[in-house]
Specification:
Elements (H helix, E strand, L loop, with lengths): L2 H13 L4 H9 L3 H19 L2 E11 L25 H13 L4 E6 L7 H14 L4 E5 L5 H10 L3 E3 L7 H7 L6 H13 L3 E8 L6 H14 L3 E6 L16 H14 L4 E4 L1 H4 L5 H4 L7 E5 L3 H7 L5 E2 L2 E2 L5 H10 L3 E2 L1
Parallel strand pairs: 1-2, 1-8, 1-11, 2-3, 3-4, 4-5, 5-6, 6-7, 7-8
Antiparallel strand pairs: 9-10
Helix pairs in contact: 1-3, 3-10, 4-5, 5-6
Length: 341
């Protein structure tokens, strides 16, 4: 590893950030040596701060209706090829029970921005799930909502909330989201969630259309300021019937590299290894733990439901990913010395 790159990693570990030009070089000139160095530092830091433990979180998609027309998304409002669904309360309980019976005690409920899922309706779902499953941590991802809704759902028992900030650069944001969406509203929602007492989660995507290194740096600095409790790092995945269906996917190796960067920047943040990384990097979720991840996100075993959600397509190269097998993940992580909880 070159002296300059080694110095950058040292500085990132010591101060949690870099000057813009140095940061750009760290990203642009990624190589095997710098990747190994970053992974080693991120792995050690994660073990020091949080222990060599992996928390499993189950993700349940409860609706794929959405009022928005986001250009990257497979469940955008005007995609008439989507088979829409909305789970009943009984179905939600059945799927959560599937996770719970496997020992999973953290669950993320996610949907498109479905107007049918009202403030009161979601409140009832939270009460129902929390009363049915003792000791369950419940995270939500229902998009930008009123602050009063955030407060009510927190009082009902939700612990965390995820919102994708999209892009910190306004011009880039306008190229990948519809004109009626605002980066300011997304960021406002994130700060309102913090004020409401949530553990806040955000997402970062590498390789979105029109994204430059400058845009990536702006996102990095924003997330450093936000200091999310949870962070999901992934690569852009083109979805059929979306505006960007013909674009190339993002780079899985760079997504993992950025996981390690964020671990050094945000030592206490919980970083997710999510299914999407497997779509661009073989064994991506397992490799993510070499890069400092500490949370494993798994989907329900009903692969038909997962595929109908369609935010991204669950494929690696030309092969569709099989249903998640938690037992296999646990075995492989324990072989690496992790304790899975």
């Amino acid at each position: 590893m070159g002296n300059a790159m080694s110095e950058y990693v040292d500085e990132l570990l010591a101060s949690g950030s870099l000057e813009k030009g140095r940061f750009a070089e760290l990203l642009k000139y990624r190589n095997l040596e710098s990747t190994k160095e970053l992974f080693d530092r991120a792995d050690r830091l994660r073990n020091q701060v949080q222990g060599k433990r992996v928390t499993v979180c189950g993700r349940l998609m409860i609706s794929n209706y959405c009022k928005n027309e986001c250009k990257m998304c497979g469940i955008r409002r005007d995609n008439r090829f989507v088979q829409r669904f909305r789970l009943s309360e009984e179905q939600i309980l059945d799927y959560v029970d599937e996770f719970y019976s496997k020992g999973i005690r953290s669950v993320l409920l996610e949907s498109g921005e479905d107007s049918f899922l009202t403030e009161d309706g979601i409140t009832e779902i939270i009460h129902m799930v929390k009363e049915s499953f003792s000791g369950l941590q419940l995270f939500l991802a229902f998009g930008e909502r009123k602050k009063t809704s955030f407060v009510k759902w927190k009082e009902a028992g939700a612990e965390g909330y995820f919102i994708n900030h999209g892009s910190e650069n306004e011009q880039h944001f306008k190229k990948i989201f519809p004109s009626n969406m605002s980066p300011l509203l997304k960021k406002q929602s994130l700060w309102e969630l913090k004020e409401a007492g949530y553990r806040v989660g955000s997402h970062f995507l590498i390789g979105t259309p029109y994204q430059t290194v400058e845009h990536v740096l702006e996102d990095i600095y924003f997330l450093k300021t936000l200091r999310p409790d949870f962070l999901s790092v992934g690569a852009f995945l083109p979805v059929s019937k979306s505006v960007f269906a013909d674009q190339r996917s993002g780079n899985g190796e760079m997504a993992l590299y950025l996981m390690a960067v964020f671990r050094l920047m945000l030592p206490g943040c919980h970083i997710f290894a999510s299914p999407s990384i497997d779509c661009v990097y073989a064994d991506g979720r397992i490799t993510a733990f070499d890069a400092g991840a500490d949370m494993l996100l798994v989907d329900v075993s009903d692969i038909a439901l997962v595929e109908r959600y369609g935010v991204y397509e669950r494929k690696h190269r030309r092969l569709a990913l099989p249903a998640d097998n938690l037992a296999v993940f646990i075995d492989r992580l324990e072989e690496r010395g992790f304790t899975v909880i």
